[in-house]
Amino acid sequence: MTAVRSRTPRSHSRPTSRTSSKKRPQHQQPHLPTMSTLPVLPKKPLPAGRPREWYVTHNRRLKAMRIAIALLDTGVYTVEQACDHTIHATAQRIGVHPPSPATCRLVRSLLP
What count of other Cβ atoms lies within 10 Å of the Cβ of residue 57? Predict the structure, then answer.
């Protein structure tokens, strides 16, 4: 015969650090200068008839180039400065969906 555990919510069984009145310091993003406003180029339609993998790779490269240009524009010039958090924050700031780890690696490979 096995013992049955009660289904008491965790918050009632013991206090956690989240219920304390102390606030934990949040990670602060380093101050980056504002980006310049450049003219937006018109988009061209992609060629038809290519394999799906080609389109995925093409779009990943475009996204990585946009993020890399924005990083360079804000003063991030080396791979050491371009951590995942900085890349994600830059993508959010320029209005791009959060990049995948593969796209982050591609962004770093584009930096000098």
Answer: 14
Q: What is the reported pTM?
A: 0.62
Handedness of CA 67, 73, 75, 78 (dihedral sign): positive
Q: How far apart are CA 100 and CA 112, in angstroms?
A: 21
pLDDT at 39 over 60: yes
- Give the length of the chain: 112
Q: At what angle do helices 84-94 and 101-110 cross, to 10 degrees?
A: 90
- Secondary structure (DSSP) of 8-65: --HHHHS--GGGSSPPPPPPPPPP-PPPP--PPPPP-PPPSS--HHHHHHHHHHHHHH
